[in-house]
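Hey,
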Amino acid sequence: MKIIERVKEAFREDSPYRQMLLAILITALSYGLYKGMIDNYLAEVVGMGEMGKGVTEFFRELPGILLVFILAAFYMLSAESLYKIGAVILLIGMGMHAFLPPTKVLITLAICVYSLGDHIQLGMKNTMALEYAKPEHGGAALGAHNAMNQIGTLVGYGVIVVAFTLFRGQGVYNAFFYVATILAAVSVFFAFRIHGTSQTDETKRRFYFHKKYHKYYMLEMFYGARKQVFFTFGPYVLILFYGASAATISFLFAVSAIVGFFASPVVGRIIDKVGYKIVMVMDTIILVAVCFFYGFAHHLFPRDLAFLVCCINYILDSVISLASMASNLYVQDLSDNQEEVKATISTGVSINHVITIFIALFGGWIWKSLGIELLFVCSAVLGLFNSAYAATIQVPKKSSVSE
């Protein structure tokens, strides 16, 4: 009851915040089911190998690059309208998973369509939450919609863990794609009940380049490349190399999400205490160890123990990724105003996406041709480059107390 009261305190009563939160919750539940089984589905049913996974990831990330241009083309639409469009596209993409034959081309197309809807909705959720918030309650409103998203996703993961522990086979995948599609349709229903005229954030629709941010742009390139190796191939190594089931992968995602939830404020406090530059430089020490064990565990330990080591290192990588928030503080120190911060970070996200789509393709080729060992050695090297470049940052005087 206290949680409900806190949500009510965060939003204006005359706003459609209930419909928004319900739409976000149900979409997240659908996503949790989808994400919990999609990698195993690609490997077990579609028969997609290392290179095929890289190609699929290229098309999954493509909407992230196109998003800036899509939002620019529809600048006249409100955040509510764009959110509804995203909900419909997301539903179509999920329906394609459920009803199309499981061929590599068609499923890759379905993933691309689903990703487009997801990316369109991404920024609109923040915009609507802030618009519906009471004065001085913007942070609480953002926290509420993030909580809905996390709860729904975790429940979806949990369902997949139970279902795929009890049952196996293509029929189970098909059944849950149908369920996820129905949930996406319910989410569309609630999305269309959101009435309002929140304007989209203009910084989501344009690039912002300035020479003072050139090191931030480079850091985003290194981080995007490093991150993509684990995001794309981390779970796939566990599936193809160690034979992990959908239940195991979904459980791993759930644990990573829970650990990340509790670790995030701790990492934030560390950044505040020691400074963002030190965090950006030092996180590579853990990263190198993570990459080493992920790529070479099968040479060092018995198979079952090597699998456990890789699972632990996957969770550690998700914690390391939280350190990326340090670069946002670097941008804030360099900026002249808050709008410049938003525009610069938005540009950084786009740069990040440009790099990730090529890393996905190149990473798939490395794994297939040269082995997983070299793939994760490359990830460690990218991390070292990231740290070496971060070490060249000149911290503005106003942040020197943190250093």
